[in-house]
Amino acid sequence: MRSEPIDPSGLEWTRVSPKYLRVRLLGWLIGSLVWILLASVPLVLRLTGVWDSFPPVWLAWGLPAVVLVSAVWRGILLPRQVRAIGYAERDDDLLVRQGVFFQRTMVVPYGRMQYVDVAVGPIERAFGICTLKLHTASPATNAFIPGLPTGEGARLREQLSARGEARLAGL
Amino acid sequence: MTAGAVVPPQAADEWRRVHVISPLVRGWIALVAILYFAGRDWFEGLFDADSRGRGPLPEGVGLLLAGGVVLGVVVVIAAVFLVSWYFTRYQVTAEHVRVHSGVVFRQQRQARLDRVQAIDIVQPFLARIFGLAELKFEVADAGESAVRLAFLKLDDAKKLRATILARAAGVEPDPEHPEEVPEAPEREVVVSPPGRVVGAALLSGTTVALVVAAAVIITLGITLDTPFIATSFIPLLIGVVGAYWSALSTGYNFRAATSPDGIRMRYGLLDTRAQTVPPGRVQALGIVQSPLWRLKGWYRVTVNVAGYGASASNEGQARATLLPVGTRDEVLQILALVLPDPGTPRPVEVFGAGMTGRDGGEGFVTTPRRARWLAPLAWRRNGFTVTGTALLLRSGVLWRQLVVVPHERTQSLSIDQGPVDRRVRVANLQFQTTPGPVSPRVLLADADAAWDLFHGQSVRAAEARRRSGPEQWMKPVSLPAAQTVDGPDHRIEVRANTGPGVSDAAPGDSGRASAVPPSGQPVGLHGAAEDLPVDDVATRSAVVDGGPPITAGSPSGFVVPSGATDAAVDRAAAPEQAAVMPEVPRYEPAPAQAPRSLEEAPDGQR
């Protein structure tokens, strides 16, 4: 699935921690369960006879089925999505890529970084990983690297700050 | 910045208050509202009492009581405003502007002068009557003004603006008269005649919407045979009149001028506004032509300036408009102000191709033919080209758009590709800039060309940042050798390695750039400025007018002020401001057999 403009040759991506897949799977499991339960409400009401005619039976069955299929599809895709996330530190800038079908690669010059965030949620903390987010003067710069091992996140944060300082440019 | 250390405390460094009438001007709506409601209640009460024949109080006492209550409320409100006025003070020092405000919750705000992104002087109608003005100081936080001083006397506001700009620019104050900071001279370059503003409003989308809506309503009225036609026009008319009014009032009397302190804009019918955008503060520029404007060949120019942000309000949109309606020549003139060095010997042709052209002329790389079914109309127009100083992105068939991004202003960029794009080997690029109306992107470019642009642009942006001018745009520049440099890089070389942020001696730097000390501070004086008396006007003019930055010997298609470099010293020494009027940069069409641009990218047909 390597294609030239997104994954240029001569560039080695650093992939994120495999633990991030487990975090994502956990989140996916919880989210999917909630959605399937919600989508099953009309079916339950219909089967127990509380609602007698409104949702046709095919619709009552169809809704949770559609939700289930999409959840399974997302679940199948998850490992590939996580594997697709990567970053590469170059001399002057940082590259971040993501996406399986809709792929995106973003380049953020070190001198353009205004600040760097490292965020850790409760589940992420349990797995010892963190999410790093880069901010430039443009709010549209949506560059974040999830699933970094805590140590790597701290190293990258320091590294980026140091390089940003060395190449500091105004706006 | 050493000015503060050398020069004794100046008059402008005092703590000051805004004009004493300003609470009234700011609070007049509240006052009018109170008077209106109180007055109406009193009046109605009087009327009731008369009609019923039994007044609760004798006539005179009721009047007195009502008057007393109203007066009391007014006095309390006036006192609140007065106290808040008393506790609001501001100070302009050599490096900062400070504002202290608040009574219970005190606020002390301090903004660095060299971080200025724009300065506006706004005169709402009422303030205009009193000869007052509000001064807004914008830094790059893309939202609320960092400092708003409402209201000052117009003259004081102008003086303060001149002081702030001079200090932000790094102009050394005159040691003998430190208080006298003359306003930088300016030269008007674009004036919109009122007729054109009216025409532009009439040819806008509002008119189209009006015609369509009227047609729908009339058709409905006839087919359904109902009499509600007339009433349904009322809300429509209110909306349309509002839209026309805002177009008129913000575009009326529009003038753009150039000055050493950057681009000046003035406009407004009842409320007037004067904006100053210092050099190098424009992050991206968009030129748009709507279908109806094509009849007259008009364009609108909008910009992203970090201090202005992306506001949807009329005021916010007007602020981010560099030219509400202008002809092609005027657009090119404005472009020349924003981008004095177009980075190509054929600026008129290249920008012209960007505004109206299609296919691969003038170095534009368009959507490849194999992907034309993804954009059946726009594929011949979607495109980009790169000059030595800027990136040009072209799009749109009905709403023609050209976006210009100076290389050193690119924040970050991303390339994305969906499954369909991958099949036809195209990709989209998005350039992130500060918030604003302009959104630079390239749609459906050939995958290889997109990658070349993506990679090349990050290199070019890094290179341009190293060479870009200082934040303090008048700060004398140190470059002993630069004066002798010739060739296309002339201007760039001279302005190199100054100011904070260009001090990185990264690999690949030119020898000159790495010679700058790590502090990033300029080490000496500009070659031309060195011999000059350290006078505000003189220094300004020397750098802008006579200094090599603008032109001398550059092949890039400017009108070179004859003998600009030599004349600089003479002119600068002359005391009159008229003598130091800035030269207006202007793009000139290339001669017939002009050499092809070296920067030209390969044609788009692959």
From TrEMBL, chain A:
What InterPro entries does this protein's entry cite? YdbS-like_PH
Which keywords does this chain's UniProt record carry?
Membrane, Transmembrane, Transmembrane helix
Determine if Membrane is one of this entry's keywords.
yes
Pfam family membership, one: bPH_2
- The membrane-spanning stretches of this chain are 25-45, 57-77
Q: Where is the YdbS-like PH domain?
A: 83-160
* PANTHER family the UniProt entry points to: TRANSMEMBRANE PROTEIN-RELATED, UPF0699 TRANSMEMBRANE PROTEIN YDBS
Its recorded name reads PH domain-containing protein
Organism this protein belongs to: Arthrobacter bussei
The lineage is:
Bacteria, Bacillati, Actinomycetota, Actinomycetes, Micrococcales
From TrEMBL, chain B:
Source organism superkingdom:
Bacteria
Asked if Iron-sulfur is a keyword of the record, the answer is: no
Sorted UniProt keywords: Membrane, Transmembrane, Transmembrane helix
Query: What sequence ranges are listed for the domain YdbS-like PH?
Result: 85-164, 256-326, 379-442
For the region Disordered, give the residue spans.
Answer: 481-528, 541-606
Signal sequence, start to end = none
**Protein's recorded name:** PH domain-containing protein
Origin organism of this chain?
A: Arthrobacter bussei
